[in-house]
């Protein structure tokens, strides 16, 4: 049996970075199974993702992290090293629309979602039966203007209680506070029901219909305090034409939402996304 690990990092570009990583892995009897890198000449920065394995049972995650820290300090790396066999724990937030949740649950049950859905949270109770059918805990956390601070505090309690790695807003129709966005920075993904930045606000598909659009799309992005302007992870676009009504555009758009969100969640949980300011570097 072998243990699989994933190392991701970014740092200022300079000679010797790849050699330092590969030499480290050789010294620890590790075999590289995947290596991808991106050199960004505009910012003088290197982004790297390396998958590796070992059959040496004495090699453990904590020891690897401790030994690699010195190399990371030398090169000024922002880095993460994780055991690839341990799936990320996901909290899904929903309101009343169920299509994104249904898709994530299907992928989770079929084993194509590289994560464990640990909890479903909603500001309404409508989708509790869907959670019950899947055998996943459901938490109803109502939100009003008066209770919003208390509701968000409860959400963070649940994040800690269930040891959550990623929060997914699967058509959760509430705006998170700036403080909560900052607390969840880099570990909360939202699906926006339009091809950003067009058609923001209410009824985006009806807006698109009025403009006679030829493409309908959806954008999965990280949550930030700037509403729907966080780093973009994935965008799905579907060609349409004048024959589709506004109601039909909604159905097409929901397909785009499901696809974009599922990809974004998988890529995040597989450590394929590296953040660089308001941009993302994504290794396929």
Q: Could you characterize the architecture of this molecule?
A:
- This protein has 284 residues and is of the alpha/beta class.
- The protein folds into 2 domains: 81 residues, ACT domain (Alpha-Beta Plaits, 2-Layer Sandwich); 194 residues, Rossmann fold (3-Layer(aba) Sandwich), CATH 3.40.50.170.
- The protein has 8 helices and 13 strands.
- Strands 7-6-5-8-9-10-11 form a 7-stranded mixed beta sheet. Strands 2-3-1-4 form a 4-stranded antiparallel beta sheet, with helices on one face. A two-stranded antiparallel ribbon has the order 12-13.
- Helix 6 links the parallel strand 8 and strand 9.
- The longest helix has 24 residues.
- It is globular and about 60 Å long.
At CATH level 3, the topology of the largest domain is Rossmann fold
Structural class: alpha/beta
Number of strands: 13
The biggest sheet, with number of strands, parallel, antiparallel or mixed sense and barrel status, is: 7 strands, mixed
Low-confidence stretches: none
What CATH first level of the largest domain would be assigned? Alpha Beta
Shape: globular
Q: What distance lies between the first and last C-alpha atoms, to the nearest angstrom?
A: 26 Å
Work out the radius of gyration: 21 Å
